[in-house]
Amino acid sequence: MVKEAAISGVEAIGALYSSVGGEVWRAMLAASGGRAEVADEATAEAFKRLCQHWDSVREPRPWLYRTAYRLVVDELRRSPRDQVGVADAVVYPPEQSALSVEVVHLLRQLPADQRLVVFLFYYADLPLGEIAMLTGSTAVAVRIRLHRARGQLRAMIEEASRA
Amino acid sequence: MLDLREVLSDFDNAQPPEELRQRVMRDAAQVFTTGRGGKSATNAGKRRRRPIAWVAAGLGAALVLGLLVIAAHSRDAHQAPRPAQQPNHSPRVVSGNGVRLTVPSGWRVVRPASDAPVTDPRTLLVAGTAGVHPQASQCQIGGKYHIPADGAVVIVLGWLSSSAGGGPVNPGRAPLDHLTRVRKPMFECYAGRGAAAQVHLHGIDYQVNVMVGDRASSSRIEDALRVARSLNSTSGGEATVLPAGPPPRRLDTQVRYQTPSGFTPEVDLSVPAGWYGYADAQGFGVGKRSQAHTDGLIRVWHIDQPFATTIKAFRRLPGLTITARKPASLGGHTGLTYAITAPSVIDLFGGWIPDGNTRATLLDFDGTTVMINVQPAHDQAGRAEVRRVIQSFSFTP
Predict the structure, then answer these.
(1) HSE of B326 in the Cβ direction (CA atoms, 13 Å)?
(2) Alpha-carbon distance A17 to A20, whole Å?
(3) Which of A55, A69, A143, B50 is deepest in the core (most CB within 10 A)?
């Protein structure tokens, strides 16, 4: 009986990873500013914690997003911003990286919370309500983050053009 | 204006590593079978235990990455191509909507800016250097693209249902030969230098426009003019009809194919030599490999249902998970591209969606729908090849 439950649990996690693993990983890649190593670690750890809390989690998708995002933020706090990319450069040299240096550079102009909402809004094309649900926030807060991100990027572009 | 959707399209190429799936499954098996799992070591914890030499190597590599980032954003960086999109340095042919251009290393196909509200001429193909991207503008040509100071762009317009403004154009390529210099002002809304020519090829009037940034070098300008002079129509000459299938048959050295008569809409496409392909009553498929169910395979079929109805049915397909959605545009037809996951093969209006992660584009085709399903290629070169083939699609209603 225990064994059967274990098999069905593993199968459920396998199916869940097939359906949402990629999107969670990509979102964490964006939130971490293109750091594939951090995205890998956060996604894997979030899935592991989901297994540990399998019986009490009602909505796995937002739970995974929030947990993985918290892990990304924790990791970014540990490593100063100017050192971002140390591990990536080893694990994913630029010529092998999935993201171009331009995109990585752009993402790193923004704080992690803004990167995540920019990615979910502009790439994943999700409505504000769904982004709020996935990030454990409110639609108003998401809108504010998007507004600030756009302002910051605009300022960055203007500064670059002046230089 | 920065087009974030265009910039973030880089994530199309980002796929989680297979090791991650394996690790998730391993962890799940461990937690569910033993109840263990506890709090795993954090990444930072692992990092603290790494040998000093490893950390030093990482810092060295970070320095290299940092220099690359700086180089990519300096004014002199225009020669540095994006590695994923420039596998070699030889000129290559890019095509779309019945026209083709030969572009040098560092150039790429740029998503065309919207022609709305103009319906004729239509933008057929845009090629530019890194950093060129469409931007919102009310202007007809100039101002529609962001051009870096050291960049350049070539835009091909076509009059598909009428003749070019300013009277009839003599057939032949002669006007292209006059594209030898740029001057300013050339275009409304664009203060920089440019050049333009109108030609009549295979019964269609085209206009090719060149725009270069303020600090473009003479070699960059010469490249741009050469790209413009290379304009040719892919509509002339005979295209080979795709063989009946499935399974896909090996295509010969021809690069231009078309769907059999009776398939609506008629599609003219260019594929690299050595690809496989087939056509059946519903549609066609082309890919690098002979198996019908493999990476990099592009399958296209026509759905005789309005776009909105198809979208509604598509989104409600049992078992289908949609992980991302983006606006799409191909050959002047708009639609939506979905990143999807299916646990098993799903039938959809005469076609089928394979299991696993694929990308489905549904195009609104004048009251009906065209579906393009792509099984992602494993490597970036393969993905770029697939993108080029799709961009070569030319539809005839």
Answers:
(1) 22
(2) 5
(3) A69
* Residue A93 CA to its chain's centroid (Å): 20
Tens of pLDDT along B37-74?
Answer: 544 444 433 433 444 444 454 555 454 444 434 443 33
Instruction: Give how far Cα B160 sits from Cα of B122, B127, B218, B392, Å.
Output: 7, 20, 34, 17
The sign one gets for the Cα dihedral A145, A148, A150, A156 is negative
Q: Measure the CA–CA gap between A135 and B10, rounded to whole angstroms.
A: 22
Q: What is the rounded distance in angstroms from the CA atom of residue B196 to the CA atom of residue B210? A: 6
pLDDT of A63 reads: 93
Interchain contact A124–B (C-beta under 8 A) = yes
Determine the residue of chain B that is closest to A20 in CA distance: B323
What is the ipTM score, two decimals? Answer: 0.86
Cα angle for residues A12, A14, A15 (degrees, 5° grid)? 65
**pTM score, two decimals?**
0.39
Of A63, A21, A66, A95, nearest in space to B18 by CA:
A21
Which of chain A's residues have a Cβ under 8 Å away from the Cβ of B16? 21-22, 25-26, 39-40, 43
By Cβ distance, the residue of A10, A44, A45 closest to B32 is A10
Question: How many alpha carbons lie under 13 Å from residue A65 in its C-beta half-sphere?
Answer: 21
Which residue of A lies nearest to B28 if distances are taken between CA atoms? A10
* Beta bridge pairs of residue B351: B348
* CA pair distance A148, A141, nearest whole angstrom: 11
Instruction: Report the distance separating Cα B271 and Cα B257, nearest Å.
Output: 8
The CA-based diameter of chain A, rounded to the nearest angstrom, is 69
**What are the chain B neighbours of A83 within 8 Å (beta carbons)?**
59, 62
pLDDT digits (tens, 9 = 90+) for A69-118: 999 998 888 765 434 333 343 334 443 456 777 778 788 888 888 999 99
Report the alpha-carbon distance of residue B252 to residue B274 in Å, rounded. Answer: 6
d(CA B230, CA B138): 29
Residue B102 has, within 13 A of its CA and on its CB side, a CA count of 7
Neighbour-count burial for A46-68, b at 16+ CB within 10 Å, e otherwise: bbbbbbbebeebeebbbbbbbbb
Residues of chain A neighbouring B58 (CB-CB closer than 8 A)? 86-87, 89-90
Q: What size, in residues, is chain B?
A: 397
